[in-house]
Write a structure and sequence with these properties.
The protein has helices at about 10-25, 40-45, 50-75, 80-105, 110-135, 140-180, 185-200, 205-210, 215-225, 230-245, 255-260, 260-275, 280-290, 295-305, 305-315, 325-335, 345-350, 350-360, 370-390, 395-400, 405-415, 420-440, 445-450, 455-465. By secondary structure, it is an all-alpha fold. Helix 5 packs antiparallel against helix 6 (about 140-180) and helix 12 packs antiparallel against helix 13. The model is unreliable at about 25-50 and about 465-470 (pLDDT under 50).
């Protein structure tokens, strides 16, 4: 989950409240605490939070429970029964806290959810009692026979927990989507979209949930509604970028997306064209880049909308395309569009070969690892795009005139120029071989013998083992 990626000390500080709550519950277990009506808001922390804060609290609690269940399985494997029991008690407390916290949220719960809550709580209590009995015997044979039952109970607890979290998050996503669809307030709409974006950032599972509850249609409506602000459109684009990431393995929402692709792509292209800042352009272009991986239909729609001309023009504006991350999105779109034969003329007319040549020189100015990785992707994808487009003689001729061949040779022979990236090397070798067919005079004999003539894998091995000369 996204939560794992934060600084460990910061994470510990955030979790400290939850952990101390848990310890208090262990000590005060079975002791009733009366709450006066006027004191309730002070004692129930979750009532102080907004919808997004409630979701974050729920996700943190769920992450702790999930982690604890995994650790129980590990301790059980090593027959550390004392630890298994103490961790089971802790999970039991966290489950009670999670259910209580969620039930304080200002919304109605379904009968199915109440049933799952009861099943999970009952099974956790049974699990705790079971592991306590295991502590009371030292007979290895009895413990061995009980271990399989404990494992089975642990699996059931994990199953009920997963089903409950799935149901809760689905309901929360539905509530947020309902707010977007029905609210007449711009503030509520923007807040709901921000909540969806926060959910989408938590990982593939949450993206799947949003897509499953038909959020695509809602996002399409937001993007095409001109009454919304640019900021709202950008938030919607950010959610689309998250749930269409090519790294996600689920495709359940693909049919729904394909049905609405044309209006979504049209709205995103317009957002790119009218973007008032680099951040807005980055979000819109990232969504477009991900969509081009779905189907060539997206590339055909982009071609009809003159998207290549718009993207190339944006790249000349340093206030809009201002980072390697934005150039990464643009060149991704160009690379995916370059499979279409009609793209070659668009590239020539928009001075796109010059842009691709410039992208071969992309270097990180800060030394930041994420930025350096983005620069590598820009170099790789620009080389891939050149290789694909150079099947057209006019593009190949323009690339040769702009001295692309010497630059590609430099990237192949100099590891530091490509930040020691093997993916950049392979893409440059492929582009170089394509251009060498069109213009063999542009290569020296040694370049031809080492970089073009051998099998690609042999040239690759030669270049990866090559020591750079500074003479």
């Amino acid at each position: 989950m996204h939560l794992i990626q934060v600084d460990s000390v910061q994470r510990w500080m955030e979790d400290l409240k939850l952990m101390t709550d848990c310890e208090c519950m262990c000590i005060l277990q079975s002791k009733p605490i009366s709450i006066e009506k006027d004191e309730q808001n002070e004692l129930i922390l979750s009532s102080q939070y907004s919808t997004c804060d409630n979701l974050q609290l729920l996700l943190k609690r769920a992450w702790i429970i999930s982690t604890e269940l995994t650790r129980i399985a590990q301790k059980l494997e090593k027959n550390r029964w004392q630890r298994v029991h103490s961790m089971t008690v802790r999970v039991n407390c966290h489950v009670h806290s999670m259910v209580n916290e969620y039930n304080t949220f200002p919304r109605s719960s379904s009968e199915e959810m109440h049933q799952l809550e009861k099943l999970l709580i009952d099974k956790c209590s049974e699990f705790t009692a079971f592991t306590e009995r295991c502590l009371q015997t030292e007979d290895e044979e009895i413990l061995k026979s009980m271990k399989s039952c404990v494992n089975e109970t642990l699996t059931t607890v994990a199953q009920y927990f997963g089903q409950l979290i799935e149901l809760v998050l689905t309901q929360e996503a539905q509530n947020l989507l309902r707010q977007v669809e029905l609210s007449g307030s711009l503030y509520v709409t923007e807040s709901a979209i921000s909540g969806l974006f926060s959910l989408a950032q938590e990982g593939a599972h949450l993206c799947r949930i949003i897509a499953k509850v038909d959020g695509i249609l809602c996002l399409a409506d937001i993007l095409t509604d001109t009454s919304h602000s640019e900021a709202t459109h950008a938030e919607a684009a950010a959610v689309i970028a998250q749930i269409t990431s090519p790294h996600l393995t689920f495709t359940q929402h693909l049919s729904s997306f394909l049905e609405n692709m044309e209006e979504i792509v049209t709205a995103l292209v317009k957002l790119c064209q009218e973007a008032s800042s680099g951040e807005v352009f980055l979000l819109a272009s990232a969504a477009l880049a991900n969509i081009t991986f779905f189907d060539t239909m997206a590339c055909e729609i982009l071609l009809q909308l003159n998207a290549m001309k718009i993207l190339l023009a944006a790249c000349s504006d340093r206030h809009i395309v201002d980072t390697p991350y934005s150039r990464d999105q643009v060149v991704t779109i160009l690379a995916n569009m370059s499979v279409l034969d009609q793209c070659a003329s668009e590239i020539i007319q928009g001075n796109g070969v010059q842009l691709l040549m410039e992208m071969l020189f992309e270097k990180s100015s800060s030394g930041n690892p994420a930025e350096a990785a983005a620069c590598e992707r820009v170099q790789q994808k620009s080389a891939v795009t050149l290789a694909r487009l150079s099947r057209d003689p006019e593009v190949a001729e323009a690339a040769v005139k702009l001295s692309c061949i010497p630059r590609l040779i430099k990237l192949c022979r100099s590891p530091t120029e490509r930040n020691n990236s093997d993916s950049v090397l392979v893409a440059c070798l492929a582009a170089l071989r394509r251009l060498a067919v069109m213009s063999p005079d542009g290569l020296e004999d040694s370049d031809f013998q080492q970089l073009v003539k051998p099998r690609l894998v042999d040239s690759f091995l030669l270049c990866t083992n090559m020591e750079e000369s500074f003479v």
